Amino acid sequence: MNQDKVEEKKINTGMTDSPILRYNELLDNLGGKRVLTAELLDMFIQETIRRLGEAEDALNSRDMKGFHREVHSIKGGALNLMADDLAHHALRLEQPVKAGLAENAAPEGIIPGDELLRKDLEELKKAFKRFREMWNSIREKNEADQE
Asked: In the chain, at which residue ranges do the beta strands (DSSP E only) sit?
């Protein structure tokens, strides 16, 4: 039996992927459509700004279900857009809260609003800042390449 090999066409952007944003892989998955990729990344950034604010508000008001919802959504979007570092930090926040919600109590050793969650939320914000900076750098390079 003769097996046909399907040759994958990879897009070469001249940029190196990183755990902060695997842009080349994302672009390849979206068929090389730079405008679509940019629109998705820009929408995700706007949505994440909103969600981070809502997560902080939920934490301040001790609304663990609301906090979990926002962090879970950030994680999902980050995974879909190949932002591994951001997804990792969101997962780190999500897991103990999810475990506590499943037990219908605060996770062991974590009191809603305690400093551990606040510290991890700050780490998530830093990861998001790195993501935004990388995307801005890629966008600038793409624009310079088009000139």
From this structure: none
In this structure, what token pair is assigned to residue 112? 């809603």
Q: Are 121 and 56 in contact (CB under 8 A)?
A: yes
Domains of the chain with CATH codes: 32-142 (1.20.120.160)
Choose among 101, 92, 100, 79: nearest CA to 22: 79
Fill in the amino acid letter for 3.
Answer: Q
Tokens at 134, concatenated: 């990388």
The residues, ordered by sequence, that sit 6+ positions from 64 with a Cβ below 8 Å of its Cβ are 58, 97, 100, 101, 106, 112
pTM over 0.85: no
Q: How many residues can be counted in the chain?
A: 147
Instruction: List the pLDDT tens digit at each of the 147 positions of the chain.
Output: 444 443 344 445 556 789 999 999 999 999 999 999 999 999 999 999 999 999 999 998 888 899 999 999 999 999 999 999 999 999 999 998 887 776 655 544 455 557 888 999 999 999 999 999 999 999 998 888 877
Q: Which two tokens stand for residue 90?
A: 């969101």
Candidates 131, 7, 8; CA nearest to 81 is: 131
> What is the C-alpha radius of gyration for the chain, rounded to an integer number of angstroms?
18
